[in-house]
Request: fold
Amino acid sequence: MINLFVDCSRYLMILMMAVYTYLNFRYFSAGEEQRKGLCSWQNRIMFLMHFLAYMIIYIKTEDPRMAVFYGAQVLFFMAYILLYRLFYPGSSRILANNVCMLLCVGFIILSRLSFGRAARQFIIVAVSGAAAWLIPMILGRVWQLSKIPWVYGLTGLGLLTAVYFVGDTSFGAQLSISAAGVSVQPSEFVKILFVLFVAAMFYRSTGFKQVLVTTAVAAAHVLILVASKDLGSGLIFFVTYLAILFAATSSWLYLGAGALSGCGAAVVAYRLFSHVRVRVSAWKNPWADIDNTGYQITQSLFAIGTGGWLGMGLYQGMPGKIPVVSKDFVFAAISEEMGAMFAVCVLLICLGCFLQFIMIACEMEAAFYRLTVFGLGIMYITQVFLAVGGTIKFIPSTGVTLPLISYGGSSVVSTLILFGVVQGVYVLKREEEE
Reply:
């Protein structure tokens, strides 16, 4: 009977996820009153799916901690949604809903993989969510953000340099700094500083000299990341800068020159770093060395293929066989147990967030805010693309996490801050209109 319930539950969760995703895109063409109704239905669907998933987890584990953990999550989601609605009536409800839905999916799959990691992730999310909630209030009272570009740029360079000299090495790359048992990945936070720096510089001027100076500082960020062998973050920084540069200048010459230089840098990185050659080799033909370099990607493909469109159901698959599954390859675990249809809906929700970012950017009259939101949107969707692309063997694995879903404190904190900044800019725009 229990197995029948678990088997049927996957169909219900897929259906609920599909309806939520439909409402997510229906939101863009709806009127103001309709949007409120759509967002309310999204909340109901999310809480119902969340309850069903944790009921299955509790049945399978018989661990009373899961019930307490579920209750804590419900309180957090309700507080996050209601506090935004109460204190920031001009905020984007669809973004607040999508943050909660993506976190919900992340907690479900992490609870299935490792309760300890899921609990640690929740504590970090609860604290950082409270801090990120204050960002719109801070933005509404600070009007000098565009006047301190070098504070952002030099702070970012300083943090990345510190990682290069004293950072801990993980999977061949220097990524984090540890102190008092706490490990922090500074590049996750430098992403936001980097976007603020570039937006502030191009807000001042888009002349050739300003472009040259900004490009030099941006290149320094990327080169330090490359020297630290954090090539995934380096690629995110590069793509984001190129997109902001084109948005600010509308110059196809700059775009073409940047794309060519990026291709050249990729060739150089391939020749310089052995672990890059290993990842490219595993991407090209993982079956040639399935027990070694190709093991991770082949296990990921096996999991996705086994799950099919409808999934195996929670606790019916074997996602634990995939190395680093809770971080880089969490998308494969979702696909195996919750199905490819569910996983595609997760991607569409991420795409919906990106489209909302772009719509907010287009509404902004101030170039600084417009470029900031646009840059953060590009940075977010690029990370999603790299995380999923490496999992499904579309591109070589880059070692980046799937925002708000993968296990990783620095990643989830920086993403919540990113969404908080976008919400703050949107609230400013709505207040100006009123």
Remarks:
- The longest strand covers residues 173-179.
